[in-house]
Every structure is written in C-alpha cells, then in structure tokens.
Amino acid sequence: MANNRGPSFFLTLLFHLLTISASFVQISSLGFGINYGQIANNLPSPSRVVLLIKSLNVTRIKLYDADPNVLLAFSNSNVQFVVGLGNEYLANMTNPSKAQSWIQQHLQPYLSQTKITCITVGNEVFNTNDTQLIMNLLPAMQSVHGALVNLGLDQQVTVTTAHSFNILSNSYPPSSGSFRQDLLQYIQPLLAFHSQFNSPFLINAYPFFAYKDNPSEVSLSYVLFEPNPGSIDPNTNLNYDNMLYAQIDAVYAAIKMLGHTDIEVRISETGWPSKGDTNEIGASPENAATYNGNLLKRIEQKQGTPANPSVPIDIYVFALFNENLKPGPASERNYGLYYPDGTPVYNIGLQGFLPEMVIASSSNGSAVNFLACIITCFISAWELLRL
C-alpha cells in the first residue's frame, strides 16, 4: 500500500515533539533566586558561573556588590540581578551627587545588556549597634532613588534594603508579629518609602538559627518542611506546617500593625548550613538537603503562606557556593549548594554544568532518557517519511 505521508506529516509530528520538549523545559525551570556571595579565594570565574547558572535555569541572582566582572559576564542573558551597596557606602550615599556618581559608574554602563532590577542599600543595618549607620540608612536609600529618577531609571530599578529577622520583637503567633520598639522611629518612615515607591521589604530568615538555639523546644520536622502536626495561630486559626512561612507572616503582621497592607515581603536570604561548629546543632548535609530540597518543591508549587495564600513566596536561597573566607562560626562558610569546583555539596535534584566537568543528580537519568526518546522519535518520523 502506498504511503501518502508527506512533509506536512513530518512537520506536524515535529511540532508535537517540540511542544513536549518546551513543556519539559518549563517544568525543569527553577522559580527561586540565589545569592552569589564571593567572600572566598577559590571561586570559579564569573564567565564559568554563567554556564552553571544557565544550566540550572536560575533567572534571578542577588549580589552583595555591583561586581563589574559578574555584570559583564552575564551580558545578554535572561538573568535578573539585585546588586548591593555595602554598609560602608551608606555615609557617602546620603550625598545625592555621590549617589548619582555611583549609579553612573557602577550601574548605568551595564544596564543596556544586563538586567539589573533592584539595588539593596546596606545589609542588616538595624542589626548593628552603629547609631549613625542606622540613621544614614533611609537618607541613603532616598538619595539612591532620587539619582535613579534623575537618570530616568526609577521605573527599571527599585531601591530597598535587607533586614535581619531579629528586627522583630515578637513573631509568635504570626498574627501578633511586631517590630522592636527601639527601631520603630526608623522603620515607620522606611515603610513609608516602600509604600510610596512600591519597593519590597526584604528579610533574611533562617529557621536554622531557631533550631540551633533551642533544639529541645523547636521541632526539626517543623523547620525542615517535613510532615508534622503544625502550629495553629490562636488569633486566626491558621495552621502553619513550617517555621519559614510563620516568619514571613509575622513580618506581614508587623508591617500591618504600623498601618501598611500595600508592601510585599520577600525573603532575601534563607538556607541551611551543611557543616558547623560542634555547638551548631543541626548543621549537616542531610538537614541542608532536606531544608533546601523541600523549600524548592514548595517554590515550584507557587505556594503562598497561610495568611497570604494567593501570593507565591518570593525567595533568594543562600547561597550558590561555599565561601571559605567568611568570618564567624564554621556554618558561615558552609551554606553553599555547590563547592567552588562545581560539585554539589549534597543532592537535591539539581544539575549544573561548569567547563570541563558535568555535575549530575539522580534526576539526570530521566533527562537523558527523555532526550533519547526525542531522538528516537525524530528518527522514527524520518523513517516513516521515507516509506
């Protein structure tokens, strides 16, 4: 019997195969941001990191500076950047002309090719005992925003700052979250800034700290997103099955207590160390894999918190690499998902690539099988066309 399958048959089959392929890529893409810290002397070059980030399908990176080598390396990529102004810059940034000069030198040259969407002015400033630094925070943010307005960039780049979770005086129950009294004089006008310019309120939240400090009272399953009875907020009857969501809603409640319901809370840092000092209970590769693995699953599901179920959690995981020069306890040097050579610190189903090495997870086999299936289908389609 003659075969009347022509080119249109092959094109139709090709279309369906490409549709399947596109769906696979969409499912495999990752919805979280990642912190790219560089306090180390053994990290791969930014040009190599580009390949790792692209292979992971990560599209959002948070820096702690505005490293020109990184911004240049990511030119013409789809990666969006949050860049940082360290605390040491705040005094100068209160001067509008210096703020504008910084933007013209460190930001503007890269904006045509690199997607920079946000500037964090300072990091955990309220966690310091430096009164002058605290007083400089809002004026510095205002100067940076004013400079963006002058340069016509304020619709492209927002201005914010990242806070430690301990700016709250109370976080339980979440609906009773409140800011520390000694910080209210600074936080109230800061919230007005966020509200006026529609910029997010950033929090560095680490359930690890709560568990480390009180392992006999804090459930490990609760902080690791593992099955547990949860904790019911008596004021709202909402059930929280993990600490991070409770922390996020406590921040929302604290903001609401000061009269704002129009400010989005985002997690600028969260993670779990794979190693720590002997007194850092819970720091292990197993717990780190469980925390970050379960967190990524919830991000993929676009979950919201119990008090804000329609607002998907917005999170930057800490961190891309272990950083061997960070001061402090051992845990500070062991938050990375990857060692500097590109090897995963633990397996959470991610796969990435650095030049001269392939880093694979247990899910790599399914990806290979999928590609093999696609190739087989193409060959079969070609053979059918020839009949």
From TrEMBL:
SUPFAM superfamilies: (Trans)glycosidases. Keywords: Glycosidase, Hydrolase, Signal. It is an enzyme of class 3 (hydrolase). It catalyses: Hydrolysis of (1->3)-beta-D-glucosidic linkages in (1->3)-beta-D-glucans. Residues 1-22 form the signal peptide. One of its GO terms (biological process) is carbohydrate metabolic process. Its EC number is 3.2.1.39. One of its GO terms (molecular function) is glucan endo-1,3-beta-D-glucosidase activity. PANTHER family: GLUCAN ENDO-1,3-BETA-GLUCOSIDASE BG1-RELATED-RELATED. Belongs to the glycosyl hydrolase 17 family. This is glucan endo-1,3-beta-D-glucosidase. It comes from Arachis hypogaea.
